[in-house]
Amino acid sequence: MLNAKCFGNAKDTSFVFSIHNSAFRISQRGFTMVEIVLMLAIITIISSVVLANFPSISGSINVQKTAQRFALNIRKAQNQALAVRTVQGPAGPVVPRSVGINITTAAPTTYIMFAETAVNNRYDAGTDILIETFNIETGIQLFELRNESNGLETAINIVFTVPSAEAAIHNAAASIGQSALIRFRADRGGLIRSVRARTSGQVVVE
Predict the structure, then answer these.
(1) How far is CA 72 from CA 67, 78, 143, 157, 185, in A?
(2) How many helices (H) and strands (E) does the chain have?
(3) What one-character DSSP code corresponds to residue 175?
(4) Residue 135 Cα distances to 63, 107, 204, angstroms
(5) Distant-in-sequence contacts of 27-36, Cβ < 8 A, 24+ apart
């Protein structure tokens, strides 16, 4: 049986039990209404900040994805020229003279891969063969096309001769030099990513 000596004296004993009971009541009381309101206010503020920045975050991801995909499709055209693959022409399968990518400001949300039947290093809708149409990511579009001298263009053709894959870069009429810059922009946030293609075969996402 316990006696007062275990705690020093009876007064000390009542003090210990009083402390224990107070701590138990504090641990069991939960949150007050003021604390709940403050917590909800903090959550609301954080959510608002995240939602406000979501379009920019999403736009940044999609514009980077668009630029990378465009660069990969240039490589795809180059590889097809090297592999000397046949394409389906009006009269049946043919080996193209060259394979290229055509992109134009007149169609800012798409671009194409094409095969030339006669080498003039540009896409002619009436005679050349459309291999594939690529759709640009939602919320992203072509912003501008620039030539080697940084002048603006309305169309750019990046073409690889079969079978050497020697590259040429032309607008709708003539060569625009040894490099071209293709720039994509997010509709929201205005974020821009670029792809630089060179006649050396180098393709870089900037």
Answers:
(1) 9, 10, 19, 15, 18
(2) 2, 12
(3) B
(4) 13, 10, 20
(5) none
Name, in order, each residue with C-beta under 8 angstroms of 174's C-beta and a sequence gap of 6 or more: none
Rounded Cα distance between 78 and 166, Å, is: 9
Contact between 7 and 16 (Cβ < 8 Å): yes
Which of 178, 163, 79, 155 has the alpha carbon at shortest distance from 119? 163
pTM above 0.85? no
- Averaged pLDDT in 10-residue chunks for the chain of 206 residues: 47 49 51 76 68 61 95 97 92 94 98 93 94 95 97 98 96 96 90 96 95
Tokens of 170: 């032309």
DSSP one-letter code for 56:
H
Q: Tokens 């224990």: give the residue.
A: 20
The tokens for 182 are 């293709």
Question: What is the C-alpha separation between 191 and 56, in angstroms, rounded?
Answer: 8
pLDDT of residue 46: 73
Among 104, 134, 129, residue whose Cα is nearest residue 116: 129
